Amino acid sequence: MLSPSLRQQIKCRWIEFRREPSAFFWVMFMPIMWMVALGFAFSDPQPESYGVGWTQESSQAMPDHLRKSIEESSRLRLRTGTDQQLVNFIKRGDISLVLRWQGQQLDYQFDTTNPEAMRARILVNNLVQEAAGREDLIPTKDQQIRAEGGRYIDFLIPGLLGLSIMTSSLFGVGMTIVSNRKENLLKRYIATPMRPYEYIVSHICGRYMVLAFEFTAVMLSGLLIFDFTVFGNFVSFLFIAILGAGAFTAIALLCASRTRSIPTIGAMVNLITLPMMMLSGVFFSKNNFPESLQGVLDFLPLTALNDALRKVALEGQTLSQVSFELLVLAGYLVFGTLITNRIFKWY
Question: What is the distance between the alpha carbons of residues 319 and 273, in angstroms, rounded to a whole number?
Answer without folding.
Answer: 26
